[in-house]
Design goal:
By secondary structure, the protein is mostly helical. The protein has a single domain, classed as Transcription Regulator spoIIAA (2-Layer Sandwich), CATH 3.30.750. It is 56% helix and 12% strand. It has five helices and three strands. Strands 1-2-3 form a three-stranded parallel beta sheet. Helix 2 runs parallel beside helix 3. The longest helix is centred in the last third of the chain and has 18 residues.
């Protein structure tokens, strides 16, 4: 299943926007093995957005499951680095 981020939120700046994406991911993960997040048209994300959208999935899924079942598509360097950095930091905290 593909989730187009800009079809859910107008930007990726806040916790509230991240929660909207997280809820869509949870629904998609119940019916699909892999979920593709399409960031087409998104130029910037904040750590608050990434935390709420992705890292807050950790009560339901461990980090390895999140990384294996959610694939990020069509991101620029800033978005890719932000997501990667947040997962690295979270892994350190959990490890």
């Amino acid at each position: 299943m593909v989730i187009k981020i800009l079809s859910l939120v107008s930007s990726c700046d806040s916790n509230q926007q991240g929660l909207c994406v997280k809820n869509a991911i949870l629904v998609a993960l119940k019916s699909q093995d892999v979920v593709f997040l399409d960031f087409s048209g998104v130029t910037n994300v904040t750590s608050s957005f990434v935390n709420s959208a992705l890292l807050d999935l950790s009560p339901q899924f461990d980090l390895d499951t999140i990384k294996s079942r959610i694939q990020i598509k069509r991101v620029n360097r800033q978005i890719g680095n932000m997501i990667k950095d947040r997962f690295v930091s979270e892994a350190r905290l959990q490890g």
